[in-house]
Structure formats: C-alpha cells, structure tokens
Prior knowledge:
- The protein is of the alpha/beta class.
- It contains seven helices and five strands, in the order H-E-H-E-H-H-H-E-E-H-H-E.
- Helix 1 crosses helix 2.
- It is globular.
- The relative contact order is 0.22.
Amino acid sequence: MTSDASPARSRWEEATREVASLLDDRTCxxxxxxxxxxxxxxxxxxxRAHVRRRPVAIVxxxxxxxxxxxxxxxxxxxxxxxxxxESGVSLRKIAKPVNHEGTLFVVPSGAGPFExxxxxxxxxxxxxxxxxxxxxxxLFIILPASAEGLAPF
Length: 153
C-alpha cells in the first residue's frame, strides 16, 4: 500500500464529506466524470468516508486509473474486473485492500480492452450488487464518459 496523503487528497475528501452521508442507504454508485482521474479521486474520498461504517470496494472499469493505481499494493497481480467478468476469477481474489483496516478495496482493471456495450449488460453485475447489499457494503464503479451503453450527459 502506498500513502496518498497529499494536499489534493485532503481537498477531495473535504469536498465530498457532505455528499458522503447521502450515500448511506446506497449499495452501488457509478461514477463518471469529464476526467476519469477525477471520478476515481471522488470514489476514493467517498470510500474513505464510508469505511468507518461498512466495507467499500472501488472498481476500476476505466483501465489503470492513476489515482487507483497509486493506492494499490505493488504486488497486486495481473487480474482485475475484466477477468472477473470474462473468466470468472473470484472478486475476493482480485480485490486488493488499500487501507490498514482491510475495509477499503480497489478492484484493478485487469487485462483489457473493455467492451463496455457487452460488459455493462452482464447479469453478473446484478449478482455482484446483491452480494454487496447482503453484506451491507458499498460498491463504486468508475466508468469513462465515453463508455458505450451509458446515456450521454
């Protein structure tokens, strides 16, 4: 695990502090930003606000998002969310804890490319979200604004 205690991190956490409580009754949040790295930073800040109350996982469906890569352990391995959906690799094997308490996880992207039109329609998402709901956990999914299958904003 690496430390991300920069002034930029504290600004993101400050900016999201008030919003975090609005997610108390949510299980899954999809974050899309004009810049993918900003969406990842928001997810990290919101996740850090929620880990005091419940486990949080952040899925990198962008592809090696720099803010998420920065907090992953060096030995994270090659598998990621793509491998979970395409090959059935267990999420428990690919989700990497990024805090000392082991309550904040990042799911790396894995070997892409992403076929968003196909990926976003997978039934496995529903099962994954139900598993998070049953555990009382929170799931963030970071997607690029250009992902096929997203409504334009």
